[in-house]
């Protein structure tokens, strides 16, 4: 049901842009005003969430660890699963952010011959990587719409992405891979009953929204062959703050752009904020040096003095002996 709601929602968004531009002729609203509002909401919302997290106190070391902590010399220390120095923590973060290392450890529970078994499951890791890297490549390639002249590095990314030289216009591998990634992420939620049970509209909606963006983009490039020069006039108008609505821009472009605007507005308030949050996650970005450094709680009340067991025993020794309690020092 949640998947269906999300699908209806994305369809409704497509219809809003279709009728808004196609029937109500509001290209100005969809092509200039909404993108500005969306970018502003995204930037302010994103910064706000990051500042909120950055200001949250983290008085203790709370890294999640998956390996041996630094201990005695003869016990092998797992440097990247249980980092102890800032350098090791940095490498752990790079591996997490660039390689999704924790997803690589994903396991699945199955009943085999009536017994509960845990098995490695790498598909989530693989398809998540495919999705995220394809998304990144597509965003980098799109930068050609916002730069004049187009930087050489964007041309290089386009060349690599289309290196198979299939078809006219050339097929970008990232277009296929993003659909494969998104298709897997969606179907795993729908197919696995456990996952389906815990999946909400907020899980399906962003997936379906991004699928909508990718499909409308693919339709524009490979099927409708939109007037890219007219679109570039529009996008350059946006970045130079002299917005124009050129003639000949297809309505599918406005649908594509509207879905992107919705994604931008939705982003800071959604689980998609993991993109920024991963950098500030104290379970990941802290070294686990609790056996090396003594951490004092910064919130300790200075008026309350610590009372060691030694001092406690000194204070109550006689009463303890009288009550028959064991003491460390007799007098
Ligand atoms: C979340 C951001 C976006 C995603 C994921 C996305 C995705 C895609 C995809 C998958 C394609 C198919 C062809 C290709 O890969 O180049 C495409 C094409 C296109 N997109 Fe986007 N897009 C995004 C944002 C935008 C924005 C902000 C604009 C313009 C304001 C835009 C304009 C276009 C145009 C004009 C095409 C057709 C390109 C061509 O014919 O070569 N897209 N988009």
Automatic annotation (TrEMBL):
UniProt GO molecular function: electron transfer activity; heme binding; nitrate reductase activity
Spans traversing the lipid bilayer: 33-51, 123-143, 163-185, 197-220, 240-267
Listed GO cellular component terms?
plasma membrane
* InterPro entries xrefs: DsrM (IPR047660), Heme-iron_electron_transfer (IPR051936), NarG-like_domain (IPR023234), NarG-like_sf (IPR036197)
Its topology with respect to the membrane? Multi-pass membrane protein
**From which organism does this entry originate?**
Maridesulfovibrio salexigens (strain ATCC 14822 / DSM 2638 / NCIMB 8403 / VKM B-1763) (Desulfovibrio salexigens)
NarG-like domain residues are 119-275
Keywords for this entry? Cell membrane, Electron transport, Membrane, Oxidoreductase, Transmembrane, Transmembrane helix, Transport
- Where is this gene product found? Cell membrane
Determine the domain of life of the protein's source: Bacteria
Which BP terms does GO give this entry?
anaerobic electron transport chain
- Entry protein name: Nitrate reductase gamma subunit
Q: Which Pfam families match?
A: Nitrate_red_gam
Q: What is its main location?
A: membrane
């Amino acid at each position: 049901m949640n998947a269906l709601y999300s699908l209806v929602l994305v369809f409704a968004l497509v219809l809003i842009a279709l009728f808004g531009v196609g029937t109500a002729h509001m290209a100005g609203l969809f092509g200039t005003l909404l993108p500005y509002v969306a970018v502003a909401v995204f930037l302010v919302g994103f910064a706000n969430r990051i500042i909120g997290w950055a200001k949250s106190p983290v008085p203790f070391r709370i890294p999640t660890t998956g390996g041996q902590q630094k201990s005695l010399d003869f016990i092998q220390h797992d440097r990247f699963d249980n980092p102890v120095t800032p350098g090791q923590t940095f490498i752990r973060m790079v591996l997490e952010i660039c390689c999704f290392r924790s997803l690589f450890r994903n396991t699945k529970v199955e009943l085999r011959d009536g017994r509960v078994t845990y098995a490695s499951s790498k598909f989530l890791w693989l398809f998540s990587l495919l999705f995220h890297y394809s998304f990144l490549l597509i965003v980098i390639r799109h930068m050609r719409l916002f730069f004049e002249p187009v930087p050489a590095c964007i041309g290089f990314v386009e060349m690599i992405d289309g290196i198979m030289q299939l078809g006219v216009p050339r097929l970008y591998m990232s277009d296929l891979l993003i659909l494969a990634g998104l298709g897997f992420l969606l179907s795993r939620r729908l197919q696995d009953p456990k996952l389906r049970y815990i999946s909400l509209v907020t899980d399906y909606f962003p997936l379906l929204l991004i699928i909508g963006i990718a499909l409308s983009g693919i339709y524009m490039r490979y099927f409708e062959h939109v007037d890219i020069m007219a679109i570039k006039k529009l996008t350059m108008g946006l970045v130079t703050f002299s917005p124009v609505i050129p003639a000949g821009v297809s309505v599918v472009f406005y649908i594509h752009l509207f879905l992107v605007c919705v994604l931008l507005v939705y982003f800071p308030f959604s689980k998609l904020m993991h993109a920024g949050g991963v950098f500030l996650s104290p379970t990941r970005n802290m070294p686990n040096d609790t056996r090396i450094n003594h951490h004092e709680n910064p919130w300790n009340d200075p008026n309350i003095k610590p009372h060691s067991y030694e001092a406690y025993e000194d204070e109550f020794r006689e009463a303890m002996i009288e009550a028959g309690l064991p003491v460390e020092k007799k007098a």
